[in-house]
Amino acid sequence: MTLASEAPQLMDASGALQQGAWLLVVVPALSAAVLLLGGRRTDRWGHLLGALVPAVLFVYCLMLCSAVRCRPTSAAVTCTCGRGSRSAR
To answer: Residue 78: left (phi > 0), alpha (psi -120 to 50), or beta?
Structure first.
């Protein structure tokens, strides 16, 4: 067998949660830009934004992980690197 035939299959990003995973990068970058560019104008509410964004993204990550774990087994990638993956010789 070649390595190409044993390579795991990639899953497509189906579902609203998986397709919105780009938010994990963009939302913190935008909130940092707002805080940096806002300067002293964000003194009254900037700490709330700085605490709320990671908390919301953590909840989003939990939902994303549960959505990926709850996929049907036929769509999930199976790990073939365990003990039982080699055939008897």
So the answer is: beta
For residue 37, being part of any structural domain is answered with yes
- 3-class secondary structure for the chain? CCHHHHCCCCCCCCCHHHHCCCHHHHHHHHHHHHHHHHHHHHCCCHHHHHHHHHHHHHHHHHHHHHHHHCCCCCCCCCCCCCHHHCCCC
Q: How many domains does the chain have?
A: 1
Asked if residues 64 and 18 have their Cβ atoms less than 8 Å apart, the reply is yes
| Tokens at 30, concatenated | 């935008």
Residues 50-87: pLDDT tens digits? 999 999 999 999 988 888 777 665 555 554 555 554 44
The CA distance from 86 to 89, in Å, is 9
Which residue type does 71 have?
A: R
pTM greater than the 0.70 cutoff: no
